[in-house]
Amino acid sequence: RERERERIERLLKESVKRSDENVKIRMLTEKDEKKAEELYIKFKIMMEEDIENALLFVQDFILKNIIFGIFEKKVLAGIIIIEYGRKLLIDNYEEPVKTFYIQEMIVDEKYKGKGYGDILIKYAILRCPKDIDYLSFMTMPENIAMRKIGERNNFNLQMKPSGDKKHLLLFIRVNDRIESSLYKSLSYKKSISSS
Description:
- This protein is an alpha+beta fold.
- It contains six helices and eight strands.
- Strands 1-2-3-4-5-6-8-7 form an eight-stranded mixed beta sheet, sandwiched between helices.
- α2 (33-46) crosses α3.
- It is globular, with a radius of gyration of 17 Å.
């Protein structure tokens, strides 16, 4: 148990990135479960999807360390859920390819318009393992905001359909492993004037 606790603490510490002194991204823990579940249920209702197992899904995401949150002044403002090895059929390939898949990205209505979706996508790009060549996400054609976020972050719309009935569009980004500019945009630098 002690080793597991230390492992979780290390993962949590490694997951933290700051956008500024009030905005932080980190892996979610059990204490974040209730707020994450609320966000997830609202999203599923909006998508007209089943909410019966929402709590179980959130608990599972937390246990697997695949759900991360963006916090404004310590309040959960949004979440991103990642699948580390989803195989998808993408342009220029005959067989499905392993991708770092952004399963869900949800920003609370109260925090929309602050660029948090863009920050969460940049964070996912940073977290992509070096041995995975592509990042991916699916979205609906009418989700203009998500399409714009993808385009700004060098995701390309695929000609091949996603295979999902609702989220028809598949976006792919090459994992170019050039992280310095992204890291700088997510790293908090305390100014001398605030000390």
